[in-house]
Amino acid sequence: AQSVAQPEDQVNVAEGNPLTVKCTYSVSGNPYLFWYVQYPNRGLQFLLKYITGDNLVKGSYGFEAEFNKSQTSFHLKKPSALVSDSALYFCAVRPPASGTYKYIFGTGTRLKVLA
Amino acid sequence: GAVVSQHPSWVICKSGTSVKIECRSLDFQATTMFWYRQFPKQSLMLMATSNEGSKATYEQGVEKDKFLINHASLTLSTLTVTSAHPEDSSFYICSATTGTGRTEAFFGQGTRLTVV
């Protein structure tokens, strides 16, 4: 079965330190990969995506993500965390040629940036 | 990014009544819209996929007669929770996308439904 794993329920990091939120996937073919952020009682906001090309993709609010095909991972990173980055982060995968454009979501990782 | 507007943001209704939630793509034509349900501290559960002008495709275990979805135009989809019960209380989120797999989906701000 196809799946997306976010192994950490919560990640704590001090403000100013680099952060990493992990995502691995088990999907056949070359899926499209996405990261979203959710603030309390809000919908999801798109951060970035990997479709093809350079393995390092840059997105909104200073976030970037590195695609690693051999490890089937797509970890979200930021060089210097802000308190305002505290939120719930979702990794999503869209299988290629799925025909339905459905996402497979990870379970989410809560990021807490400490002042 | 593109804007998806979901209305209302929150609603309280009495048990046994029906509630309609609207999802509009404001600046693009959404060939496909999705409806999700999110339980506290959990991921999103896909309820159904709707394409403009056709019947929605429901995920396994989702009651189509209870959660009525209509996608009447390329910019509007509605979810009606019929004969609501307290267990239907949840956070409902819609998303919309254009017709390519490479395009990200854009999400509405969500609707907090409380059935009393």
What topology emerges from the helices and strands here?
The complex is a heterodimer of chains A (115) and B (116).
Chain A: E1 3-5, E2 10-14, E3 19-21, E4 24-26, E5 32-38, E6 44-50, E7 56-58, E8 64-68, E9 73-78, E10 87-94, E11 104-105, E12 109-114
Parallel strand pairs in A: 2-12
Antiparallel strand pairs in A: 1-4, 3-9, 5-6, 5-10, 7-8, 8-9, 10-11, 10-12
Chain B: E1 4-7, E2 10-13, E3 19-25, E4 32-38, E5 44-51, E6 57-58, E7 67-73, E8 76-81, E9 90-97, E10 106-107, E11 111-115
Please provide a written account of the structure.
With about 120 residues, chain A is an all-beta fold. Chain A contains no helices and 12 strands. Chain A has strands at about 5, 10-15, 20, 25, 30-40, 45-50, 55-60, 65-70, 75-80, 85-95, 105, 110-115. In chain A, the strands form 3 sheets. In chain A, strands 2, 5, 6, 10, 11 and 12 form a 6-stranded mixed sheet that branches. In chain A, strand 7 (about 55-60) and strand 8 (about 65-70) form a beta hairpin. Chain B is an all-beta fold and about 120 residues long. Chain B is built from no helices and 11 strands. Chain B has strands at about 5, 10-15, 20-25, 30-40, 45-50, 55-60, 65-75, 75-80, 90-95, 105, 110-115. In chain B, the strands form 2 sheets. In chain B, strands 2, 4, 5, 6, 9, 10 and 11 form a 7-stranded mixed sheet that branches. A 4-stranded antiparallel sheet of chain B has the order 1-3-8-7, with no helix packed on it. In chain B, a hairpin with a 2-residue loop joins strand 7 (about 65-75) and strand 8 (about 75-80). The interface of A and B includes residues 36, 46 and 106 of A.
Short description:
The complex is a heterodimer of chains A (115) and B (116). With 115 residues, chain A is an all-beta fold.
